[in-house]
Amino acid sequence: IVAAEEKLKTLRTKFVNNVSEPVLRSLLDGLLERQVLTDGEVEHISGIGNRSDKARELVDMVRKKGPEASSALITTLCEVDPCVSTNLKLEPKWVKWIPKRARDRKNWAENCPIL
Question: Sorted alphabetically, which SMART domains does this protein's record hold (predicted)?
């Protein structure tokens, strides 16, 4: 089984090339709501000049926070952009990788509705 943060690492370039500006904004909002990102982190990423650099910063920042945060990004991407998540071949197994106690606490284990 590949850990969620490893999956993000291997898909970094495809994520950066495929995610749109509106989806990035939705991801930032969703990750803020899930308490994966702080207000300051969202402001930092939002202040970056171009879309690809924002996407790069987001995936790197979340990946470095570990499997729970990485799973939250995958879940949120499945929710807000089924097309990109399908193209990246993201599956719920990366979402389910987090421990049950963390899923209960953060409510991060929602499965991608399209898979």
Answer: CARD
Residue 96 tokens, joined: 């389910």
What gap in Å lies between CA 64 and CA 114, rounded to an integer?
27
DSSP state, residue 35:
T
Residue 92 within any structural domain of the chain: yes
pLDDT tens-place string over residues 19-31: 999 999 999 999 9
pTM of the model: 0.76
CATH number at residue 13: 1.10.533.10
Cβ–Cβ contacts within 10 Å for residue 7, how many?
24
| Residues 6 or more apart in contact with residue 42 via CB below 8 angstroms | 28, 29, 31, 32
Q: Which residues in the chain come in under a pLDDT of 50?
A: 1, 94-115
B/e letters for 80-111, b = 16+ CB within 10 Å, e = fewer, are bbeebbeebebbbebbebbeeebbeebebbee
